[in-house]
Design a protein that fits this description.
homodimer, 470 residues, alpha/beta, Arc Repressor Mutant, subunit A, Aspartate Aminotransferase, domain 1, Aspartate Aminotransferase, domain 2, four-stranded antiparallel sheet, 16 helices, 17 strands, 14% strand
């Protein structure tokens, strides 16, 4: 839902965005009217109207009997980077770029997940059986609101180890953190509202804004220390955002970690203006050394931080068990969850509760953190060795992503297309902003065990990049 | 999200609705400002503004130092039943009436689920282990879009047995049917749009409309044969709804079953006007005799029916595995699901796939249908025996609900309060419409094995009803 624009206008805007971002290039053929009808679920008339509008803007041309093509004359250069609140239309690009089409991927450097081989799948399977054996029939229909109560208590205990006192009632279990983040944003906003996000930032936040018809105010994020608070203060003063959505520890895509004092200042700034913070913290348990950093929520005294966590990246991919510690929004979030999907899947929740009770989670986390640190280091070294001089790579203190900035003039979208054809995926920079920025950047995934095949893939990426400048 | 009304106004409207519906009665004390702040996640100022607005409308009065009370002067009688599109504000009532508060329920006649003892929990537990053993690690992160592919194929095969050819790609697995229904509605509408629903109808549809800021056009539903098509045709002509959401087989709350010819006419009517149908069909597998009725989707040739099913009521409560066969909206629905919560929980999907492959599902369904038919018959007989003369009870051909219409003047909301205090739950009629209609009606759940305790509960309900008229 993006405001009240008619459908053909939205379709035209989406395609214009793809052309502006370079995902569609001069000479490329647009999908047929029939294909677009099917993929967008709209009428032929809508597609024709959209294509005509694009034609009138000079962005596409019609060729008799053979369809529509991106106009050969380059579209006008993009305007200076837009800082005013803007509607978001990135979803089409996300799905197009992250779908692999007919290509088989042997080097999943664009994936958002660590390799599933890093997880204790056998122990989880045993926990699935044991957890389900301990479930009484009545629990299946009666304990649903808010999710598995033992698991909520175990999550509260993990907060307590960080010195944070979060009552289990404040924790709403969701289908992965993603559902919790989406429901939180929906709860706090109405269509047309403005939301503060960071740039580059996680594309799922952009997609959520797009679906809810919200406008994005982007503040720059430093690849080491996260969102710029001065820019944020200025944006708050000018645009009165209704909510703020950030990753504060080992962020996606840069791996940035906001230092403790900055987290404290962030919370103070937002609370001073009564702006709730949606803190997406799904990588917090993956520091390369030591324990998890305190989240921004630890510095909040007013219940205005909705802190989202997950077991998807640390223990059990595919189980889809996440949560939001929603502060004073917990009762409202619980109701939103009940209305949207009633409750999470009981077997997965019971299994994770049983696994956590067994006491092996911390040992597993220590091993996982060591593996990710080594893999990320190897990936970073290989990139610096094989990519052209002038390439910059972040050196995160946790998680498994690295953010690569190629020398000026390089094009991650073209690189993405060329690499995909050879079975190598990557996440191009324009996925991570509302305005198609970061053309020369890409996110690579260090979550795979390091192998000669990955060395070859990074070497090949380096060759493809060099051939761009040739 | 319900349009652009400020929060205090929404809060005031919700409370006014509770007063209008009789859930709050003259002399009742409103929750304290602090309680309301906590339950609604809003500021004290918002609550005060709302209470002041209600005071200015003459609906509540403030008593020095002791809070706010519903005004003793009865509010003006409700206007003649509203047929124009109306915003929906039923969620607060649903949560208040379906939460049991401090009461322990021994007779869950208000529950929406059958007793979990009717399900093959041991076999499901074995399937959970076996299904997970057969899952390769890569499946956990790679097969996510759309859900477990074997399960989608098995669902497609069940459609095929009905003579319906639904490709597995058209089926999107969701977290219960409820998530699928919500995502479908969100996909098809924008805030402010009008949606056609039936009255009485399932309260989750009302809650979905409310959260998305949609307006309801209600058409009367016959307790035997479902939504009135003449009324629907008139409503379409006058209000140009963007979508229609109905239950066509063994509906909640009445148990109505739309006959085949009526389903055909329904689809023809909607397709003639280009209105997509969201067909909530989670009780289809529970006919008391024979096999499941054909859904309305079977009569659609244009992919305009989004058919939602679930295993929650027939096999595995708490697993939260449902689906939507979304016709031409399938690609868009898949993207909505990916953005909202990525995918369903893998262990539950793998377990159900394994169970279905084992071939016991149909035998289980036959036993379940027999049990539900007997229980519902016993419940119906007891109601007719113990409730006052003039009480009417539906005689559904499937599912497990009965819809009870008390003689004029009786009040299901008062009955609900009195019964709850004695450990008996029921679902009062006003939950099932946007306008607080059906005060003299209630939904009872025949999903529990029939016991002397339930006989006593129905007897006691009869006494409570008689004492109302005394």
């Amino acid at each position: 839902m993006s405001g009240a624009a008619p459908r053909y206008r939205q379709l035209a805007d989406d395609i214009a965005g793809l052309i502006r971002s370079g995902a569609l290039r001069p000479g490329d053929r647009l999908p047929s009217v029939r294909q677009t009808q099917a993929s967008r679920g709209c009428s032929a008339a809508t597609v024709f109207q959209a294509y005509h509008l694009l034609e009138s803007r000079g962005l596409v041309r019609a060729a008799e009997r053979s369809g529509y093509f991106v106009a050969p004359a380059a579209p006008p250069p993009p305007a200076p980077r837009e800082r005013a609140p803007q509607p978001v239309a990135v979803s089409e690009m996300v799905f197009q770029l992250l779908g692999t089409g007919p290509h088989e991927i042997h080097a999943p450097l664009g994936s958002a997940f660590p390799s599933p081989t890093l997880f204790p799948l056998d122990a989880l399977r045993r926990a699935l059986t044991a957890g389900s054996r301990r479930t009484s029939p009545a629990e299946l229909t009666q304990q649903l609101p808010g999710g598995h109560s033992a698991l909520r208590r175990l999550i509260a205990l993990r907060y307590l180890r960080l010195g944070m006192s979060i009552p289990p009632d404040e924790i709403v279990l969701t289908d992965g953190a993603l559902e919790g983040l989406n429901l939180s944003l929906q709860l706090l906003t109405r269509p047309g509202d403005t939301v503060l996000i960071e740039s580059p930032g996680f594309y799922a936040a952009l997609q959520a804004l797009e679906r809810l018809g919200l406008r994005a105010v982007q503040v720059p994020a430093d690849p080491a220390e996260g969102a710029d608070l001065d820019a944020m203060a200025a944006a708050i003063a000018r645009h009165a955002p209704r909510a703020c959505w950030l990753m504060t520890s080992f962020s996606n895509p840069t791996g940035s970690l906001m230092p403790p004092e900055k987290k404290r200042a962030l919370v103070a700034l937002l609370e001073r203006h009564g702006i709730p913070l949606i803190e997406d913290d799904v990588y917090a348990e993956l520091p390369h050394e030591g324990g998890p950093p305190l989240p921004a929520k630890a510095y909040s005294t007013r219940g205005e931080v909705l802190h989202a966590g997950s077991f998807a990246k640390t223990l059990a991919p595919g189980y889809r068990v996440g949560w939001v510690a929603a502060g004073r929004y917990a009762p409202a979030l619980l109701r939103a969850k009940l209305s949207q999907s009633l409750s999470g899947s009981w077997p997965a929740q019971a299994a994770i509760a049983h696994y956590l009770e067994g006491g092996d989670y911390d040992r597993h986390l220590r091993a996982l953190r060591r593996a990710l640190a080594e893999q990320q280091r190897a990936l970073r070294t290989a990139v610096l060795q094989h990519f052209p001089p002038g390439t910059r790579v972040t050196r995160p203190l946790g998680g498994y992503f690295v953010w690569v900035e190629l020398p000026p003039g390089h094009d991650s979208l073209a690189l993405h297309r060329a690499a995909l054809a050879e079975g190598i995926s990557l996440a191009p920079g324009p996925l991570f902003s509302a305005g198609g920025d970061f053309r020369a950047c890409l996110r690579l995934n260090g979550g795979q065990p390091w192998t000669p095949a990955l060395v070859r893939a990074v070497t090949r990426l380096g060759e493809l990049i060099r051939s761009q400048s040739a």
